[in-house]
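TL;DR need structure tokens for one chain.
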Amino acid sequence: MRILLTLGSLLYLGPIFGLIGTVIGVIQSFQAIADQGTADAQVLAESVQTALITTQLGLMALPFGVIALILGHVLKFWNEPVNGAIKDSDKSYGTCAALNLLLGFIGAHHFYSGRTGLGIFYALSLGGFVVGKYCDFIRLAWGSFTDSEGNRIRFKRQPAQSVN
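>> reply
TL;DR here they are.
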């Protein structure tokens, strides 16, 4: 279970490596133009091919990262002790879900739940490269999203009021 969470987190880095390779390929293209004074199709084609291959490899890692993270969280949720060791947070589920939907790409829901480090990461990476925002929303819906103290932020049903 822990391996899936770690693997999923590492696979999130795939698109970053793809982006770095794309930038390197474009830089090589412009360097070739600068060196020759004109655009030679053969040299440009090699640089563009480098950029496209690294982009493709980076994007191929993303679905595997999402699957590994979701499976890791599902297994973690199912394997938690049922003896009451996990407490419910005093943070509002509605507020956290609204912040995720509206401002999740800057990590507002992580700042609200007391996870400042993750909030900063989300702000710098546009919501964990957008995918993290949606994974967090799924975790909120399943009731496995936690605050900084490890308490679950989940929907609490209010007991029905009897009308006399």
